[in-house]
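U., I forgot to send this yesterday:
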Amino acid sequence: MTTDTPDHGAHPRFAEALRALGLEDVLARARRFPEATRTAAEAAAAIGCEPSRICKSLVFAADGVPVLVLMDGASRVDVERVRAELGAGKAGRADARVVRETTGYAIGGVPPFGHRTRTRVLADRALLEHDLVWAAAGTPYTVFPVAPEDLVVHAGATVADVRERPA
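Result:
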């Protein structure tokens, strides 16, 4: 863990984005853990919640253009559904370089908003089944709670059905 993060533990760029949105209260609810919360399983274990209450922020490329997909931690993204939702010819996971260039954050700490660039965002409908979800706050050790409806608004997301369905 780096020592240059403030007491709330959120990445400074994410903290500034929260302030710009008038969401300073989110910083007070952010939680920093000594163990990594990079994966949904790690975050759920640290928080003591079900993996479905973790909001994963995943970057894909649709026809070469980055798109952020917000997905509950118990589900996987159906890339074909993402492609169809965006009307793209081709879609796939973005590599670590594209994730950092697009969001300004490393994989495992990407928050749902407050990114370096403006990116199209899809939020899977299953997130709305919860009253509260936890998302990364810009570092692989820090998360924050947020109502899914607020998450969709602040991320500027389009709600869509993009998770894999059980076989």
